[in-house]
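Recall the central idea of this unit: under ordinary conditions, the amino acid sequence of a chain determines the structure it adopts. In this exercise we apply that idea directly, starting from the sequence alone.
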Amino acid sequence: NLTSLTTFDISGCFNLISLPNELDNLISLTTFVISGCLSLTSLPNKFGNFTSLIILDMIGCLSLTSLPYELNNLTSLTTFDISACSSLTSLPNKFNNFISLTILDIKRCLSLTSLLNELDNLTSLITFDMK
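Accordingly, the structure predicted from this sequence is:
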């Protein structure tokens, strides 16, 4: 019942493989940081319930292979950083709901095979880095 929690930071949990579905009760969450969770392979589908989320930082989640489609529900998201997620093969098909997104960082995602078709719908985007 951590309904008032605004920041969730579990950076560096090297052996964490998955996140519990029960996180969906974090309705006030604005910042979610899971950087350096080297063994994390996926995110729960309920991740899209974090509609107040502004910052999503997943730098260096080396084993993460995909992102749930439900991420499209994160309409308040302004910063989305998935740098160095070297096993990530694809992004959600639709990013057009990310109307507030100003920073998108996908550099060093070496296994990414396709890029978003909807980049032109990201009208608030200021910084896009994919080197």
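The chain has a mean pLDDT of 89.
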